[in-house]
Amino acid sequence: MTATLACPRSRRSARTFWLVSELVALCVDIGSTYTKAAAVDLSTGKLLGIADHRTTIESDVMIGVEAVRRKLAGFAAEPVVRICSSAGGGLRLAVVGYEREISAEAGHRAALSAGARVVHVSAGRLDDAGGRILREAAPDVVLLVGGTDGGESSVLLHNAAALAAAGIRVPVVVAGNVVVQQEVRAILEAQGLPVVTTDNVLPDIGELDPEPARAAIRGVFLDQVIGGKGLSADPDFAALVRAVTPDAVLDGVSVLAGQIRSQPDGMPSGSVVVVDVGGATTDVYCVLSPDAEQATLRREAVGVPSRRRTVEGDLGLLWSADALLVAADNEHLLLESERRSLGDWVAVRGDVAAPGTDEDRANEFRLAGLAVMIAVRRHVRAEAAYGVSGGAGGSARSASSVILSGGPIRYASAAERAALIATVLADRGGARSVLLDAEVRYDSRYVLAAAGLLATDFPDAARGLIRAGGLLG
């Protein structure tokens, strides 16, 4: 069977169409630093080949996509193409809600599960000062929530009017009290704001329903945001991107969790945790065990999504390396001498990837270790703030499997990886509790994002790819 997909061979041939075979997929992740690709046999999930290229964000990201496609053309010159992207900073999302403890917090947790970087959360009636702060956060999308269905509505209506008057010109996803959603839509659209309405993230007290908001945020990002970031002059670029990268990875982690639990010796009581270290952010993903998911549904508070993610925008190894060192200082993880030496190295290197000397490699891996430790600490602290316990697989602290990913970790030697694990296991700031009883593996072939891209249309191939990537032991 064949199908056609609009996929440009280059910027000069943007309207060229490939005749594609459904036997092979080219899964591409356009990252902030590198563009990574995997060629996958769709009949088996076999990983045919991988390639990467420096992300060509300074010119046109499709140049980098074309480069990895050429590297993998020997496996399939005309593949099914699936692309995800976090270039240009990924998705910046602000949440405007009612009470910080309930509806605003519910919106925040829904946003975290949507692969977004939450840059601002406000609660209560939005005033002029709050509007200025919101504008300064520069979100790509605003998630507007408030009230249970049929419950309090005045704050949601007030905040819609305040947003309309605040000079913010970005799409708004409305996921609050459904009784007044059409009135809210009319207020926002009267000022020319793009609006998407969806089911309430908190239809009743204690009932968190993040999936409709997550899907709406993803749709807005793909349809209205990513094409406006100036990443490509190609008119087909926005249509080619199927997901924001963290969303694809979260889907891949869910596939991995299902595969782990389906093994004869699987550990159904433990959570699956993935730590992904990147040039701009370090992300922590946690997918709960089935037992813990049921326990979560019985909670009487806001509740916690069974698939969750935290993103740390100050823990990247390249674009935010200065901020990473500040974070390490705040966590008391560096002696002053090491802080100075790493700071000097980061200043000389600038925003160009290290050329590969022994000193560069050692320093970059040290930064990676710090990013892992701080990101996991923060994830555990966030869970504690949400009231999440470690029992029944309800927390990252009860992980049965931990996967480490990211360039420096993927390419590290066995000795370097062992040293990193030993450092984390010696930590008393929270990171140790996640790795202590877990089996640790490495996404050395970067298959999680690719598996997530395939999960909906080609679920068998996604599961096969997880096996082929060596993540099941």
Strand order of the largest sheet: 5-4-3-6-12
- What's the main sheet like? 5 strands, mixed
What helical percentage do the residues reach?
25-40%
| Mean pLDDT over all positions | 83
The end-to-end span amounts to 34 Å
- In DSSP terms, counting alpha (H) and pi (I) runs of 4 or more, how many helices? 17
Say how many strands there are: 17
Q: What count of domains describes the coordinates?
A: 3
Overall shape: it is globular
Taking all Cα atoms into account, the compactness measure Rg is 22 Å
* Strand portion: 15-25%
Question: Which structural class matches the secondary elements?
Answer: alpha/beta
| Low-confidence sequence ranges | 1-21, 292-302
Task: Provide an overview of this structure.
The chain is an alpha/beta fold. The chain has three domains: 2-88 and 233-238, Domain of unknown function (DUF4445) (Nucleotidyltransferase, domain 5); 90-227, Response regulator (Rossmann fold), CATH 3.40.50; 244-468, no CATH class. It contains 17 helices and 17 strands. It has helices at 61-71, 103-112, 128-136, 154-165, 181-189, 211-225, 237-240, 245-262, 290-297, 321-330, 336-349, 358-386, 407-410, 414-425, 432-435, 448-454, 459-468; strands at 2-6, 17-21, 24-30, 34-41, 47-54, 80-85, 92-97, 117-123, 141-144, 172-174, 195-197, 241-244, 271-277, 282-287, 307-312, 399-405, 439-442. The strands form four sheets. The chain has a five-stranded mixed β-sheet with strand order 5-4-3-6-12, with helices on both faces. A five-stranded parallel β-sheet has the order 8-7-9-10-11, sandwiched between helices. Residues 1-21 and 292-302 have low confidence and may be disordered.
